[in-house]
């Protein structure tokens, strides 16, 4: 394999050649500093005129931003650089000269950067966010594999709508009506009855007319589902999983967190167990805080979630929501039919809900009644109801929104920076 920048530490005092791009440069009469990036990382290349000679030095000074290069040099330890190493350049070969790269080091407006997302991704900040996203995905597979879960892939084209019918992307499946998946959950329930503990990781789609810093039209969800797990067991999986991904990012993405200026002391504290507050107590708390508008039975908005989360330095579970504001499949509390055995996990620092989960109804008659109440097609849900006819067991699961989790852990304000090519209200380009 070819040597990359992140492996330069293995070649101290040796000469290497790397394929890279010029991110930025500054120069004087005698010396030029090249900020080089190769996708794996960033390194400073130092070009000394008296060392390389006039010709290579002139080439270095003429380099344009984002030109692609082969750079040969000697790796040197450098305490001042955040990366710890720099490259004493010996030779430069230009592969392709980039002309008038639109994203200059000066500040640009958001719409301009979004229009240039295909190029903006190359910036140091976007690179750091994508690396953290990748680490969260890696740690997700690590956690669920270690815990004996099987990865299962639910379909993207579906005939049913688990999270309600108002936000569906409808399409045609030859002659039939079909929808893009909003959640793989119902299929994951079938898979849990076959494989015990399962998890999925895939894209989900919601035609939500929300233009907030937390909403994407296309986002990625991790959806575990566990047979024989009840409400409390479900929360334990969630707090252990979330702790694992936060601690993995802290351990493996120090450079990236530093690039983003993330306050890591806040992340250090994220260890299981997480605090819990019931919906009832959350309503009382909000009234005490002066939110007079919210009544029992209302769903929380972003300001409510933020006010609740501010009381804790870890993510907080809000449990036992009213049955009337949650999807049809949630198991009612046997002592209080008006609430369900569910929990939303709210991230600290105003990042909002990162997980929605619940125990599922396992009684056939009850589920059938709920399907009817919600006006859902019994034909489309026939297979789902059948899961309750052949050895039904209590089971639970949840969905973690990847982009909101990346935003929180990275400390970036808006989810548009947490996915390579965000699909937003009014944005399908690039
Ligand atoms: O709370 P939600 O709607 O739950 C479900 O879909 C369940 N069926 C999951 C399950 O139990 N298997 O969505 C789960 C999470 C939210 O907590 C949030 O993090 C994220 O998905 N999410 C979004 N992220 C970005 N943009 C959107 N429009 C999102 N909608 C939900
Ligand atoms: Mg939710």
Automatic annotation (TrEMBL):
GO biological process: asparaginyl-tRNA aminoacylation
Catalysed reactions, as listed in the record: tRNA(Asn) + L-asparagine + ATP = L-asparaginyl-tRNA(Asn) + AMP + diphosphate + H(+)
Record bears the keyword Aminoacyl-tRNA synthetase: yes
Similarity section: Belongs to the class-II aminoacyl-tRNA synthetase family.
Keywords: Aminoacyl-tRNA synthetase, ATP-binding, Cytoplasm, Ligase, Nucleotide-binding, Protein biosynthesis
InterPro entries cross-referenced by the UniProt entry: Aa-tRNA-synt_II, aa-tRNA-synth_II, aa-tRNA-synth_II/BPL/LPL, Asn-tRNA-ligase, Asp/Asn-tRNA-synth_IIb, NA-bd_OB-fold, NA-bd_OB_tRNA
UniProt-listed Enzyme Commission number(s): 6.1.1.22
Full protein name: Asparagine--tRNA ligase
Cell compartments where the protein resides: Cytoplasm
Domain Aminoacyl-transfer RNA synthetases class-II family profile: start-end pairs: 130-430
Gene source species: Peribacillus glennii
Quaternary structure (record): Homodimer.
GO molecular function: asparagine-tRNA ligase activity; ATP binding; catalytic activity, acting on a protein; nucleic acid binding; transferase activity
SUPFAM superfamilies: Class II aaRS and biotin synthetases, Nucleic acid-binding proteins
Keyword DNA-binding: no
Pfam families membership: tRNA-synt_2, tRNA_anti-codon
GO CC annotations on file: cytoplasm
